[in-house]
Amino acid sequence: MDTDRQTPPSALAVEPHCAAPRRGRPRSEAAEQAIFAAIERLMMEGAGLGDLTIEGIAQAAGVGKATIYRRWPNKEALLVDAVVRLETPEPELSGSSARQDLIETLEYMRRRGLDKRSRWVLMVIFHQLHSLPELKSVYYDRVIQRRRQVIRDVARRGVASGEFRADLDLDLLAEMLVGAMLVRTVLWDDSPLDDPALPVTMVDALLSGLGGPAHAAAR
Amino acid sequence: MDTDRQTPPSALAVEPHCAAPRRGRPRSEAAEQAIFAAIERLMMEGAGLGDLTIEGIAQAAGVGKATIYRRWPNKEALLVDAVVRLETPEPELSGSSARQDLIETLEYMRRRGLDKRSRWVLMVIFHQLHSLPELKSVYYDRVIQRRRQVIRDVARRGVASGEFRADLDLDLLAEMLVGAMLVRTVLWDDSPLDDPALPVTMVDALLSGLGGPAHAAAR
Amino acid sequence: MDTDRQTPPSALAVEPHCAAPRRGRPRSEAAEQAIFAAIERLMMEGAGLGDLTIEGIAQAAGVGKATIYRRWPNKEALLVDAVVRLETPEPELSGSSARQDLIETLEYMRRRGLDKRSRWVLMVIFHQLHSLPELKSVYYDRVIQRRRQVIRDVARRGVASGEFRADLDLDLLAEMLVGAMLVRTVLWDDSPLDDPALPVTMVDALLSGLGGPAHAAAR
Amino acid sequence: MDTDRQTPPSALAVEPHCAAPRRGRPRSEAAEQAIFAAIERLMMEGAGLGDLTIEGIAQAAGVGKATIYRRWPNKEALLVDAVVRLETPEPELSGSSARQDLIETLEYMRRRGLDKRSRWVLMVIFHQLHSLPELKSVYYDRVIQRRRQVIRDVARRGVASGEFRADLDLDLLAEMLVGAMLVRTVLWDDSPLDDPALPVTMVDALLSGLGGPAHAAAR
DNA sequence: CGATAACCGAGACGGTACGTCGAGTCTTGGC
DNA sequence: GCCAAGACTCGACGTACCGTCTCGGTTATCG
């Protein structure tokens, strides 16, 4: 499915509304690149969300404001597209075992949480997610669902191989792992993500259970 | 505990800067109430974060802008105080067992996630947390740390009673539970918080472990 | 007189800049007509000067903007040419007497002042005359000087025939007559141009003089 | 009449719409002065009408754009008010004779036509007169009608004293004199206004009549 | 009791960014 | 080389808020 997807996934952007034979001067690919590059540059220079202005971006990109507004209907839509574009690709899972795959996924998230760019992306997402309803569905479909599916697939294989309990609630598993990583990534930036053993610790804790003797006896 | 807490916890607010005997007309308590009431009203009418402007709030509250700026140094500080003020009080834990206390804590979070007002509060928190460093520490000290302490206390008692494993990582426990609830609360608003059994399921999953026979054998 | 005037008097227009044999597709005569027709149409629909935009004209004419800019260097030049093109031809004077010729000239101006199209032309002239120095000389040479010459010729014949005083200041005569008509045309649009006797009244007043007995005695 | 007119005649301006007891901070008189001063300065530096921008004026006046838009609804209204404000006061007429008064009036217009500031004002008037209908009536009532009345009064006295013919058409007299001056002022800026004898020449020509012996015989 | 001082609503102030529009230029494919 | 279409940069438009600053007027406490 989706084998021929070359064009990058630009949601929210204003497509030239004509259907077939495209007339007139085509939009400049260079301008688009310059815009995204300017955003990334400003962002890396420490610009917060409120510091990113359309006028500033246009200036930094050497581009007219109209060129931006021709592509996106407003500031939010632009930021959203910039954010989606900055998302790092999903990791390739080794597939040696379900436990190992979970660990690799969490390790990917851990690294992402340490990367300035990725953390900035998450900030924007969390910021705009509720003020721009369109973004919600776009990001949900394009990023979140995709990741949930990865974990879900891993878990299914784990259940089949007997690594995971048969009555496993797949969503719950995903959320407990992802949620814990998000908390450490988004809520604290002096966050304890530096420990490379974190993914192993988390996965094993979840698989082995945290209950003690009294808990085991009660079952 | 905390029996003498009458004055609301207004951090970030600008206190009248003269220390000693205070002269002149005192600040109107009514104005303060009107401001908070206006924010809540606007919020309940569906105003997003970007729709909340100082001018709008002042107008809705029938209050001069200066009256707001006399109390808070800027827009963010006001929103933060409004948010902290809307925080529901912590639940009383029954203390019958550590497991039960965890479940009650999660049940409290679940209810909170279903409440429109509380969800709006979380939105603001997530939004402003990075753009206003002051908020970060205030909210961190005042809300997050307090909750972490509650869970930590519960867990400690659980370890002592043998309900929890002795090598329990308290922070990890807290984050996996809290993180999962936050994901369901903040990221999705069609979220599956409706299931009243959710807290029990989560706690028991974490305590019993999700590993299957193959996992158990490997240990 | 002027029997060979086929090509319209297009001053300010940009001639294809290669001098010699002209190659490639020749310019579309139809496009030119469409542009002028569009301007006239928009003008008659009540468009003020500020409402006439190049983009609007191009759209209304079904023509690309470049097609306009290939012919005129800027907006003002286009309007000027459009205006000159709308100028009605000079009247044929009967020549029966100098007084009669003056009256006929004023009558022509009176009618012109009652015509919406002509009044619009005058508006544009008065507007652009100072912001576009080129227009000034073009319009001056092509329209004003021509008319002054007509009146001057008439007056000269009048002096020769004894109808006019020998010490007549020709320019002053022209300006007093023309000026009065312009005032009624340009400054007021509820203007009293409806009276068909106006030209006769004006000419006779000027010729007979407005001085009374006391004035006559003083001379 | 109008003995108590202190407040300058600011038409088109947006008056604070509250009726009686004026609340809030009053508008800064200084800002208003700075705005007008900036316009005049820019104008004297040779700015054409198209070169006068709100942003430029605000900058030159050291004033926020909003401060301008709080007073005038748009650019045109501001220019109009600036123009009306720059109008020089009417001259005091000596009243020694009707002929003399007419000459003085024309001399005033001649001088005005030689003054850069006044010519600029006339340009703006002629420009905006048709694109901004409100201006038309304001300027008409406030300037043109007033001047017509002056000439009318003079002429009436002239008729009474026998200096002017009894059947004098007052409006026609005014328009022929005023029109001729306007033509020389507005249409040509290399205009022959330098001759100080011009007013005398014009008035005497009009009073004595330009007809020659043949014309006189025909009456 | 009167002065003093800080409060109050209202709204103007200088700025900054927004999103739109037009001018004049450039770049497609097509005739 | 022209044509229609429509992108491009630039810069002004008119609007909305921000955070500050007066206004006239209202309570409090202090002297």
Instruction: Give the CA-CA distance, first to last residue of chain A.
Output: 45 Å
Biggest interface pair, counts: A-B, 54 and 53 residues
CATH topology of the largest domain in chain A: Tetracycline Repressor, domain 2
- Helix/strand structural class of chain A: mainly alpha
Number of separate helices of chain A: 10
What CATH architecture label of the largest domain in chain A applies?
Answer: Orthogonal Bundle
Helix content of chain A: 55-70%
Taken as a percent bin, the fraction of beta residues of chain A is under 5%
Radius of gyration of chain A: 21 Å
Largest sheet of chain A: none
CATH top level assignment of the largest domain in chain A = Mainly Alpha
> Multimeric state of these chains?
homotetramer
Unreliable stretches of chain A, pLDDT < 50, 5 or more residues?
1-7
Number of spatially distinct domains of chain A: 2
Q: Shape of chain A from CA axes? A: elongated
The tally of strands of chain A reads 0
SSE order of chain A, one letter for each helix or strand = HHHHHHHHHH
- Rounded mean pLDDT of chain A is 83
Provide an overview of this structure.
Four copies of one chain form a homotetramer. Chain A has ten helices and no strands. The longest helix of chain A is centred in the last third of the chain and has 29 residues, at 133-161. Chain A has two domains: 29-86, Homeodomain-like (Arc Repressor Mutant, subunit A), CATH 1.10.10.60; 98-209, Tetracycline Repressor, domain 2 (Orthogonal Bundle). Chain A is elongated and about 75 Å long. By secondary structure, chain A is mostly helical. Chains in contact: A-B, C-D. Chains A and B meet through helix 6, helix 7, helix 8, helix 9 and helix 10 of A and helix 6, helix 7, helix 8, helix 9 and helix 10 of B.
